[in-house]
Amino acid sequence: MTPERSIYLSRARRIVIKIGSSLLTGDKKHGVKNSFLARLAGQINILKSRGVQCLIVTSGAISAGMFELGLKKRPEEMSELQALAAVGQSNLMHAYKKNFDRYKIKVAQVLLTREDLSQRHRYANAHRTLMKLFQHGIVPVVNENDTVAVEEIKFGNNDTLGVLVTHLAEADLLIILTDTDGFFSEDPRLNPKAKLISNVFQFDHGFEKMATRSNSIIGTGGMKSKILAAKNMMRSGVPMLIANGTAHNALRRLLDSEPIGTFFFPTAKKMKSRKRWLAWGGIPKGEIFIDDGAQKALLEKNKSLLPTGVRKTVGSWHAGEMVKIVGSNHREIANGICNFSATELNQIMGLKTSDLFDRIGRETSGEVVHRDNMVKIEID
User: Fold this and answer.
1) What pLDDT is stored for residue 149 in this prediction?
2) Fold category of 284-376 in CATH
3) Which residues of 266-298 are buried (b: 16+ CB within 10 A; e: fewer)?
4) Cβ within 8 Å of residue 279, ≥6 positions away
5) What residues in the chain have per-residue pLDDT under 50?
């Protein structure tokens, strides 16, 4: 018997709503579409009255800046994009505040970079900030801090940001509002006979081939990034919806379990916060390559990684930092916190735990990565 949407939606007390640039910007008179934000604010007011806490992941700062400066084409140079974001972000937040003020809902700007979520203590600080905003009944409006983010620390697109913020906020549901009715068997703009896929119970890797890249001059995602987001959410144990944000009362109808959009059912129990951070939040500092025996112990027996199974290392890190664990077939199989620096691990790899003290001169439990500080990565 397949589960129903209503089972998950009735439990959703905290939701993340990711809004694409095409919904927010492009108004010929103001740049930012106040008509859309006015409808959004009204729907969130209804959800708040039901006791649902809402967080918005917004796009649109760069495109709002393009409008302000009269640009028709999105620049490619990073410094140009950062300048546009600086101009557009203030306009964007002013529009949010103006429209949410009508319902006496306070909003708070939260700007993040990938680096903010990659370090556990900064991740925890950001989490505490969001919890305080929820306690005060404030709707956080989260965006990437494009004015300082460089390529190495960018999220890539705001669908990825939506996923990470859902984990950060420990939300029960991610809703991605876009300008299409959901996920189709083909691009409905190219094939009018394309079929809407209403429910996804198991992730099919063919979905990634079916999804199309964005052709928007203002956005960076497209359906492919949303499908990758769904893959992440399903595995983490949190449901996700893709729906048309221009549909009448879309949010309320979605939370009322109307069969609109595409619902991605979680395929596992909800991961604990630390495991979610290990899987997607942190940025590994290096790689540990292991042999067949260690790979079997990790994947099949849920064991910790010991020095005897380590074949080589790549990169440099300190003890307590995150690393990738790479199997004998050169596929990433796990992320974890390493108990040894790269220098130490190079000295002890291949050794039995009883021989470690003689080599590095200090007492140790012996695990390179303890199973409680490790999360397995799905292998296709």
Assistant:
1) 61
2) 2.30.130
3) bbeeebeeebbbbbbbbebbbbbbbeeebbebb
4) 236, 271, 335, 375, 377
5) 152-153, 213-221, 380
pTM of the model: 0.86
Q: Is 306 exposed, middle or buried (0-12, 13-18, 19+ CB in 10 A)?
A: buried
Check: CB of residue 57 under 8 Å from CB of residue 158. Answer: yes
Buried b (16+ CB within 10 A) or exposed e, 3-33: eebeebbeebebbbbbbbbbbbbbeeeebbb
Can you read off the two tokens belonging to residue 14? 């905290």
Q: What pLDDT is stored for residue 154 in this prediction?
A: 58
Residues 6+ positions from 261 with CB-CB distance below 8 Å = 181, 182, 198, 241, 242, 243, 244, 250, 254
Q: Could you give the CA distance from residue 323 to residue 315 in angstroms, rounded to a whole number?
A: 9
CB 336 within 8 A of CB 323: yes
Which of helix, strand or coil describes residue 210? helix
Cα gap 34→64, rounded to integer Å: 12
b (16+ CB within 10 A) / e for 319-348: eebbbbbbbbeeeebbbbbbbbbbebbeeb
Question: Taking the C-alpha atoms of 61, 106, 125 and 87 in order, what is their torsion angle to the nearest 10 degrees?
Answer: 20
pLDDT given for residue 156 in this prediction: 63
What's the distance, CA 101 to chain centroid?
Answer: 28
- Please tell me the distance from the alpha carbon of residue 321 to that of residue 293, in angstroms, as a whole number: 24
CATH topology of domain 5-271: Carbamate kinase (3.40.1160)
Residues 155, 54: Cα–Cα separation, whole Å: 21
pLDDT of residue 153: 42
Q: What are the domain boundaries of the chain?
A: 5-271, 284-376
Q: Are 117 and 144 in contact (CB under 8 A)?
A: no
Query: According to the model, what pLDDT value does residue 216 have?
Result: 45
* Strand ranges (E), the chain: 14-19, 25-27, 31-32, 53-58, 107-112, 139-144, 173-178, 199-200, 240-244, 262-264, 286-290, 310-315, 322-326, 332-337, 374-376
Token pair of 109, please?
């700007």
Contact 323, 286 (CB under 8 A): yes
Residue 65 to residue 59: CA distance in whole angstroms: 12
Q: How far apart are CA 251 and CA 44, in angstroms?
A: 8
